[in-house]
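Can anyone check this?
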Amino acid sequence: MAVVAPALVPANSPAMSRRLALVVLFVISAVGLVFEITLTRLFSLFFQYHFTFLAVSLAVLGLSLGAASVHYLKPRQQTTRALATVLIVLSLALAGAALVIAWLPSVESIFPRALIALVPFFLVGMVAALTFANFTSSSGDFYAADLVGAALGVVAVLALLSVWSAFSMTLFLAMLVGALALIVVWQQDGRSRRTGFAALSLIVGLGLLVLNLITGAVDYNPLTLTGVPRDKTMVYILQDAAQQGKVIDTEWSPFARVDVVQTNDHSARYIFADGGAGAYMLPYEGDPSTLSGLANAVEYLPFDSGSADRTLVIGAGGGKDILLALNAGSTAITAVEVNPAVVTAARKFAEYNGGVLDLPQVDLVEGDARSFVERASDHYDLIYLSLVYTQAVEPASQALVENYIFTQEAFATYLDRLAPGGRLAIVAHNALEGSRAAVTALQAFENSGVSPAQALDHVWLWTYPANDPTVNTSVLIVGKDPLPADVLDTLNTTAQAQGMNPLYAPGAYEMLFAPLRNGESVREFIDADADYNLAPTDDDQPYFFNLDYGLPPAIRSALVLAALLALALVGVAVYTAGESPTAERGSWVRAVAYAMLIGVGFMLVEVPLIQRFQILLGQPILSLAVVLATLLLAGGIGSLVSQRWRALDLPACVMIAGIWIAAVALVYNLVLPSLVEALLPAAFMVRVLGIVGLTALLGLPMGIPFPSLLRIVESDAGEQRQRVALLWAINGAFSVLGSALAVVISMLWGFKWALLAGALCYLLLIVVVWSYRWVGTRARLLVH
């Protein structure tokens, strides 16, 4: 039976039942995670890609600050009545966040949107800390409710974002929290003034949700926006009166909001993802002879390089690339599209586009192209990637995009899937991307035993002239075999006629890669270029679009802010030790170090796992859902198990859990790539179960250390009980730091080093627990 900490719940305070408290924490944990994922969708609409990282930082920052604020409440304020008040305010804050984010006209108003988004996370942190402060002796059960609620939130948001807009999702959360507040207030006070406030918060959330579902009044309106970044092409088209653009369909998915835009140019429509990433949808009536005009497009150049009878199109989009293949005489076209909302939008306009995705010659695959190619057994004459990622054109803006279709392992698979005489073709945004893709292909050849000097006979690269190297479209063709002389002559002549300039063509224009032709290795060639980072990417460092050396500004800023927050909370923790006796002060410092290590360590393990398993499932968002939900659910089970242990046994059990986590992480670092490769040919459910099993082996013990820490600290004497909220805040702040460190380490050295760093954190945790001298020396521990 749970023991309520008497120092935190005054005798005259109405106590919430343990069952209701568990429900509150379960629901609010789900709400917090749903809002976090929803916020990434909202920010992606307004800002450039790298600002979506801000949503994650805001989430953990708000949770940490909210938890820390509870530490400064007086014991008489840390009551369940205060918890009910926070729930009411949280409901109204969620509704307010939706309104402000939607209605602020300037896209450059990043700070106001971030500030209003921070408030709900702050209040969620307060709810969690207040709950744990009142039920600390049952931390294992409550931490399990927290983790399982978050896991449910992952599943729920992925389902609901395919039905509702991100704004409607936020308003639904406001309504849900309002209903929860009403239940809590009614259970405590019955009819009172606060019951009216709770009912009001419910009515506000429900009313705004209904209003938005009917009218779209609280939603994204591109016509009213100002200060829009240049990659949000849709906004510029819609605001250009001369084009008479209008949105004729909108679809939502966990990937993006997808809009179909029609202008007064009836020769094409556009499909936009989050206002950018535009793809053409062309009119087609089923007669291939009407497509002859496409032969003059730069995107058609690869089809002049040989047979395209069997074509694999990566990124089906609105179907233009499929029509290019049809014009080239393709009879078997496999088209892969990762975003299901794009497929839904294109199919809605089958009358306009001729049902291009469902033509008899087309086999449409919804999923990740890399996963599909790895598992495919067919061979193709042409594998075609045209502007696969089209969000922002500046290298720094795309730096955070992990792209597994442009790694040297991916290129090796593409070459293996080509038929004799087959080609890999990439139409890139600019010469830098085209050059990096070429170098990556050369590295793939070198890995297979073909020297760069020989592999250059397989490569052809031309670009449009431009003063800015980031905006000149380039075309790269890589042959499975050396490109024939007649094919090279055709390509050179056609490209020159279209006004393109050569970057590399075997036997004609070889200056760009002359050192490689003369015997240099790819590594030596890359080391000699200090202007842009053209090094071949791999699955351990898949940041193809990070063309600048060093860390992108967004990552540096996130790392600095996370470090400052973490250090500030550590400073507060040290200050709270005050003039406590030396022994108690030493115990508190070790407790803080414990919270720091598991906060950083958890994220350093979680992030690499999500990345490693992405290839297996064919949907990046599905990988996130399966890994994160499994970690949370397994962690919840671990937390429940730890609640059944005696407090005296907890330190030893935590050390065993730390050894387990570190050992499994070290083994995974060695064998995970091989395990993923072995699972690839298996059926979908086998792959899912494989990921669940491998993730649960880490998730189960990872759920043990934190609730064990809270129980041990709560069982201590004196003012240690009132420091529970501060430990929660420190753990959250170092989780922010851990997520930033995971990205930094992966960009500089690779995900395997991030996983190793996570293992090191849990090894250090063992040392901290050992030095704490809890076992046998702290006689004040309570036995539960």
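Reply from J.R.: I decoded it. Confidence is low (pLDDT under 50) at residues 1-14, 388-401, 774-784.
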